Structures are given as structure tokens and as C-alpha cells.
Amino acid sequence: MVKIHNFAVFYILLAFQAGACFAMSDEAAVKSLHFLLARGYMEKINSIPTGKQLLGKISYISGRKARAWILPAGGMTGDLASFSYNEGVIKISSYYILKMLKLPAMSQAELARYLIKHKSAREFLINSTDIVIVHELVHLLQSHKYDYFFREKTVPQPIEFELEAAFTQEMYLAEKT
Ligand SMILES: [Zn+2]
């Protein structure tokens, strides 16, 4: 009798957990995805010498781990990835994520739930877009080193900023392949 009772409790707990998972709010789903992707990108980028060096410089100059700035699933259009100085984050366009994974149109929260559930899709995304994250991380580093050019909207950014980002991206790619 005691055994049956314990069994019943076990099932109730399972049902409750499944229910809690299903009822995850849109905001919680997007937050969970941000965490999973940020961790995935950091692991991947850290495994390549140029990436590791870049992350080290960012942590040193800012006193924070670069992971804090990666905020995947930005707007539905625009660039594949971009660094937003005002918000202090790197965003990846969900429009391109949907295209890359050959998925139909869906909301940010639906996409977040899909990527939380499908680990292989998440890994594919990270492996295909880590190079652009490296590019944007260089801009993030520049925003700490040369804050003035990012703060003053009227001041054009030097072309060297793009060259440095492109060059770092190329070195990373050469080491990756
Ligand atoms: Zn750039």
C-alpha cells in the first residue's frame, strides 16, 4: 500500500514538472534560449586560439565575461548579427535563424521553444554563425577601447574598425578549418 502511494506521488510530480515546462512563459523561453546560446557560442569561440584571445581581451578590459553581451534572436530583419552599443549586446536576427534552419515564420518565443527543444538545430546554428559573432565581439571590444567613436553618433567610425573585425574573423576561420 505504501509502495502504491509512493508511486502515485512520483507520477504527480512528473505531471507537475511537465506542466511547468509547458507553461513556461514567452519571456522565460527567450531568456533560457539566450543563456543556452550564449554558453554555446562562448564554448565554441573559446576552443579556437584567436577566439580565446579575443574573449580574454574583452574580459580583461571590461571586467566581465563576454557571454553577458550575447543576446541572440534580435529583430526579424536587418543584418545577420549586429552589436548594439546602446543596449550593450550582440543580437542575431531571428529572420536569418529561421532561414538557416529552413523553418516557417514564427514568433520569437516559438523559435526560442524550438531551439531549446532541438539541440542539433542549436549546435548547427552556433557552428554556422560563430564567425559573425567573433566579428561583432571585435566591435564590442572596440567600444570599450575607443568609447568616443561609439558614443558620439556624429563621429564617423574609422574604417580600421571594420578591417580589424574582418581580419580577426579571417584568422578565426583559418584556424577553425
Ligand atoms: Zn563590422
Folded structure, characterized:
The radius of gyration is 20 Å and the shape is globular. Helix content is 69%, strand content 6%. It has a three-stranded mixed sheet with strand order 1-3-2. It has one domain (25-176). Helix 2 packs across helix 3 (49-62) and helix 2 packs across helix 6. The protein has eight helices and three strands; from the N terminus they run αααβββααααα. By secondary structure, it is mainly α. Residues 1-20 have low confidence and may be disordered. Strand 2 and strand 3 (89-92) form a beta hairpin. It has helices spanning 2-22, 26-46, 49-62, 94-100, 108-117, 119-145, 147-151, 159-176, and strands spanning 70-71, 81-84, 89-92. Zinc ion binds at residues 135, 139, 162, 165.
Specify the helix fraction band: 55-70%
| Helix and strand sequence | HHHEEEHHHHH
Strand order of the largest sheet: 1-3-2
**Beta fraction:** 5-15%
Number of strands: 3
Number of helices: 8
Shape: globular
Each distinct ligand: zinc ion
Brief overview:
By secondary structure, the protein is mostly helical. Helices cover 69% and strands 6% of the residues.
Write the layout of secondary structure elements.
Elements: H1 2-22, H2 26-46, H3 49-62, E1 70-71, E2 81-84, E3 89-92, H4 94-100, H5 108-117, H6 119-145, H7 147-151, H8 159-176
Parallel strand pairs: 1-3
Antiparallel strand pairs: 2-3
The structure holds zinc ion.
Residues 135, 139, 162, 165 line the site of zinc ion.
